[in-house]
Amino acid sequence: MYQYDTIDRSIVRQRALQFRRQTERFLAGTLSEDEFRPLRLQNGLYVQRHAPMLRVAIPYGMLKAGQLRTLARIAREYDRGYGHFSTRQNIQFNWPALERVPDILDELADVDMHAIQTSGNCIRNTTVDHFAGVAPDEVLNPLVYAEIIRQWSTLHPEFAFLPRKFKIALSGSPEDRAAVMVHDIGLKALFDYDGKPGFTVVVGGGLGRTPIVGHVIREFLPAADLLTYLDAILRVYNLHGRRDNKYKARIKILVKELGVAEFQRQVEHEWSFLEGGPGTLPAAEIARVEARFTRPAYRALPQVSTVHERQLREDTAFARWVARNVHPHRVSGYAAVTISLKKTGVPPGDITAAQMDGIADLAERYTFGELRVTHEQNLVFADVERESLHALWTRLGALGLATANRGLITNIIACPGGDFCSLANAVSIPVASAIQERFDDLDYLHDVGDLDLNISGCMNSCGHHHVGHIGILGVDKNGQEWYQVSIGGSQGPTASLGKVIGPSFARADVPDVIERLIEVYLRERDSDAERFIDTVQRLGIEAFKRNVYALADQ
């Protein structure tokens, strides 16, 4: 976990004070709504359907237990007792009163947190693999570079008013658990033939109104050149990106219109002025940032715990949770644990203040006082001793957080939708709840196996529906809510975009449609090992489409 220094703390304090004065001027009537809007957006404050919504930054998804307790206190004192973890690894509060937001920012500053650059047309929170630093397949720990990007991008004067919001994702593993292929810039860590660390650079990916899988513009960029190359990309985008039409303003549109080769040529030309310049990262600077990360004090443990193995044999429910929610660790005797925030009846990503306090206690007892937020709206304990897993599972169960559904169809990614978001065309949460209720049978879920289902309430795609194995998009037709269904989307190194299966459906029909899609999969899969996405890619969408619409016509 990165430890703030005096400069970090000074920036956060000054920003909180600045926003307090801006808010006071707005409430006193000396700032107009138009003047105040960009100021509040720069501090993560939206005006939503019912109330302001405050988005709090969680850089690359990492939290200390004490910070989570502060978030719990904010939920309890300033909101309605809960928070919502987003697909950007941030947390959102849906009901704060505007006049109290400066007090919230002060409380956040007390624990080295803030809401800077969680909205607005600037570089947003860099998202990272939630198993960074502990994954056995990792080639390079991305956390240090994500922190370097945070320091470089925070209040960057040249990139504070970009054509549109800008999102960077960073993966240290070839598996890519950060969805780097669908970000404005995606960075995949690797070593070159000489053992030098660096990144493959992907540009122009993104979801939203025009979904595009990104393009590789550099197979290998030395780590020392990370910031100068990011500078070059941002400068080309800042120069040519459209500001006359927000729907055409993302970098993916610029790359598409210029062509990948021309965009790459312009970036390389711009970089020729920056390469080797002041923005180059000397080894000492990388080491300085790395030294401010705490390191877990791992114990020397055997890889296999006899106690754990016996518990697996004796407790079927525990074994099922381990199979789904516990992950390998690079250190012998340890495991990473997904804490599912997808219990049936609870909006995906929502968590109560009491649960936050409970998780903070468990983080201090069973890991090293830290946790991570995933872009799939779950939490992760990265360092748990295998022998402690059963005790942790028992205590998570008491908090209602031991649902064994990581990777299953009920592990739904969903935006807040029309219940909260003023941009949404349709609700997302009730659709997610209806699907979870339909597929609440764990035995059936485990028979179906891995299946990602994502829901967005509008074309902005905050629920990442384009890369769900099944994607659901809320659309408006003559003032009525309808839902468009796509299949075949996926994240990872071979990311793909889902294809729409046909005309949209009424909300009440969506669970039936999902069930009919799964019927085809279970009938047509070539073995229990073939996943839903594999069957779709092998067969195409027609067989699925026929089953859904044939039955719909009956």
At a glance:
This protein is 37% helix and 17% strand.
- Main sheet: strands, sense, barrel: 5 strands, antiparallel
Proportion of helical residues: 25-40%
Distance between the termini: 57 Å
Strand content: 15-25%
Average pLDDT figure: 94
Count of individual beta strands: 20
Strand order of the largest sheet: 1-2-5-4-13
- Structural class based on helices, strands and sheet pairing: alpha+beta
Residue windows where pLDDT falls under 50 for at least 5 positions: none
Cα radius of gyration in angstroms: 23 Å
Task: Give the helix tally.
Answer: 18
Shape: globular
Question: Any overview of this molecule?
Answer:
This protein is α+β, with helices and mostly antiparallel strands. Helix content is 37%, strand content 17%. It contains 18 helices and 20 strands. The strands form four sheets. The protein has a five-stranded antiparallel beta sheet with strand order 1-2-5-4-13. It has a five-stranded antiparallel beta sheet with strand order 3-14-15-12-11. Helix 7 packs across helix 8. The termini are far apart. The model has no long low-confidence stretch (mean pLDDT 94).
